[in-house]
Fold this protein.
Amino acid sequence: MASLVIVVGAVIFLIASGTYAKRIEKAWGIDGDRPTPAHTLEDGVDYVPAPKMVLFGHHFASIAGAAPVVGAIGASQFGWLPVAIWCVVAGVFIGGVQDFGALFASVRHGGRSIGDVIREYVGTSGKRLFCIFAWFTTILLAAAFFDIVANTFVTAPAAGTASLLFIFWAILYGLATNKLGLNRNVCTVIGVILTFGSVWLGIQFPLVLSHTVWIWILVVYVLIAAIAPVWILLQPRDFLNSFLLYAMMIGAVIGIVIAHPSIQMPAFTGFYVNNTPLFPILFVTLACGAVSGFHSLVGSGTTSKQVDNEKDMRMIGYTGMCLECFLALVALVTVMWLPSDIRAEVTANGALYVFAYGLGNFLQVIGVPFQIGQTFGTLALSAFAMTTLDTAMRLARYICQEFAAGDKPVEEARKTVKNPLVQPWPANLLGLVVATVLAFFGYGKIWSIFGSANQLLSAIALMGIILFLKSIGRKYNMCRIPMIWMMCVAICALAWNLYINIGKNWALVIIAALLLVVAIILFIRGFTSMSKKPEVEAASDK
């Protein structure tokens, strides 16, 4: 039964978060008494300590949303069983470890990115190669989400109204809790009520605008959001929005358990489906919801600068990833219970429609009218697509600044380095211009390479985590096999992209070849550092 997939997955993730993640926390020497960069470097803009649950909501909203839904449903062409296995196994042993490790390494390096961690062990040139690679991946993601969010708002105008209202409530919440000193719990209750009320207002007053107008509105919004202090918009907006996702998941799970639908999809359809091999395509299609390199950028980009206490990192990094994997399982169930004829009809409208259709049916079981449930699912996912967009642009700004800073911390480089890209506004404008051009004129021509590039980021991030852990004399075996596996997946996926696009899409072929070269250089330098750098005593923890 489909509900069994949900129950088994939930039990495994809960056990892993309470046992395996705790063992990692102990092995890595997480220290609750050690001051974090959010305190030592607090600047009221990027470095701002946040309560654990607030930061959990921001981090979860940034990494989750539409991606695990699209990935799980897209990968189900190979059958539901390999998707479920990859989701659970990868989430526990790779994705959770990577997210936790990237957050930890960044916190111990002053809230700087994995690229800056790599610089310390591989050199400035290695850092710059990583920054180029990460910046390209992030900009490509941002360009896609400009288009995706605009399309969503055109097809579901209620989502546009609701999303704009979310921004307004977030600003009020940020001012009330951070500047006026009002009780956070009371403000949260009011903020959540207003957030859910925005969904109703969106349905009542849909905002009908063209695709082009929406993109320009999003461009102006991101221009400000990527620079504004995290406490006034990014942090509170993501925190309040996360309650939509929690409610959506809880309602879906209750409906699935009560309905107890039968599995109508084959468990396994083959190793080669629709001219596509299971390896490596399954493992780059289902990224968010299993393991995703983008998460390492979020963890070492926005999240690490807001960690109040190192003991918060296990829940934020590891448990947050497990919860996202659970969302992917919920998304898988929304397609695996459909009879083949209905499944073909529903999936023709896209993965998000499949999820909303399934959610509407499952919520109907607990008394929610189908149309309301379906609309709620669409609105909730669209809100998180917008979250991913502005988080990606903020990360692109950080990465650009770190690239320009060279071998210096950004805070120091802003005072001593003449390169304008080390400053927030020029770095933000560069990324925004490139992402906007790609959104209007052609990200689709190279979008198919994003999955491979994303998983290559994961392998490189795991390499950086290993180098860091080895340097402080901590255990790193939990990262070694995941790194090798992700490296094989990503390189094979890039090689597949090269193979199928030769003579068809030379832009994609050239980019895939360049990414392969960059990756190979970074891995060679990383493995060289691993073999040469001596282990030190744990007492020398940074």
